[in-house]
Amino acid sequence: MDIPKEILNLDCDSNVTLGEGKFDQVSLASYRGLHVAVKQFHAAVSQAEIEHEANINSSFKHLNLPVLFCVSCPEKPYLL
């Protein structure tokens, strides 16, 4: 599901960074009152790569893997 970025509260909990890698940064945010991890991709990543990762992540169902709520790809930075 593609959602507008305005729905996410990216300033939740002082914009806490949960992790960072070469292609992305994961931050704590709020979505409909829930704390969520938002993966924000750097400019070098294409929309097709984000959609591919989202398709793979949404195909897994396991208690130890995160649930994918949505993808935001209409404009950069892309969010997962």
Structure description:
It is a single chain. Helices cover 16% and strands 25% of the residues. It has one helix at residues 47-59, and strands spanning 17-20, 24-31, 34-41. The chain is α+β, with helices and mostly antiparallel strands and 80 residues long. The N and C termini lie close together (10 Å). The longest helix has 13 residues, at 47-59.
Share of helical residues = 10-25%
Main sheet specs: 3 strands, antiparallel
User: Strand content of the residues, in percent?
Assistant: 25-35%
Order of helices and strands: EEEH
Number of helical segments with 4 or more residues: 1
Labels describing this entry:
single chain; 80 residues; alpha+beta; three-stranded antiparallel beta sheet; 3 strands
Please write out the topology.
Layout: E1 17-20, E2 24-31, E3 34-41, H1 47-59
Antiparallel strand pairs: 1-2, 2-3
Short description, anyone?
With 80 residues, the chain is α+β, with helices and mostly antiparallel strands.
